[in-house]
């Protein structure tokens, strides 16, 4: 196995989030950085790409104040958590094992799992593989529609013949890693804006694939600050990805075929744990399903779906764009379980 890099979390390296402390844990064979606050049953907050523990900065204090232990890790491949270089280290056993390892590290039998983007897919997958370790799941923006019939990379390549598709662009090691690392701040601010409720992510699809990188297709972003992101907040993300690069995060995409193969026996099994789904009404992931209703499909596959909420005016980064709304809905659901 290729070597992994895990810098220690130095004092003062993290932005201040009320009541939050940071530590390194040995989890599932790797060193994992977590931000934590509160006591009690763990509520594990799983970010996506390209994010960090800091993407949950508005939720951590609220969850802790409500009597839970908020746990926001840098996921495998990100931030101060180890970033294995081999794609095989991002398979289903590894990433779901990280969640179970975190629950064990806190001495808990079960936890609530919250996920966004790749973290949402991880929440669905963990609920299918380890339902006895979860009290409930809260999924932001990415509905469960069952296992894809077609190998992911083949589906991405077919779409990429029509227009630029980041899912296809990310598959080949090298080009995306170098492009995104060349100017992390510019990439992040453009992507965050494009994915927001006021952004225009679909402009990306107006570009052909040939000869294009991601920055060639993302529309420019207005100057910071925005109502939900400051210059200082973006600077932390840019500094972290400038330090680590993006390969760890991109390996989650490159492992999609592997995880598709590894979940063949699960198929499109129903998710049996209590679930709450919350999304921005303008999220590109909800609009990107052609010819079928992903929310209706999810209802049929998640029999204990207790709530489904669409937050007005928000896009893919709903937990930052509409933090107070998300916190209110999240705490209401936590209270109900």
Which stretches of 5+ consecutive residues score pLDDT under 50? 1-7
Return the structural class: alpha/beta
Number of helices in the DSSP assignment:
15
Rg calculated over all Cα atoms: 19 Å
CATH superfamily: Alpha/Beta hydrolase fold, catalytic domain
DSSP E strands, number: 8
Spatial order of strands in the largest sheet: 1-2-4-3-5-6-7-8
Q: CATH topology, what is it called?
A: Rossmann fold
Any overview of this molecule?
It is a single chain. By secondary structure, the chain is α/β, with parallel strands linked by helices. The chain has a single domain (21-336), classed as Alpha/Beta hydrolase fold, catalytic domain (Rossmann fold), CATH 3.40.50. It is built from 15 helices and eight strands. It has an eight-stranded mixed β-sheet, with helices on both faces. Strand 5 (111-116), helix 3 (118-129) and strand 6 (134-140) form a beta-alpha-beta unit. Helix 2 packs across helix 3 (118-129) and helix 7 (184-195) crosses helix 9. It is globular, with a radius of gyration of 19 Å. The relative contact order is 0.15.
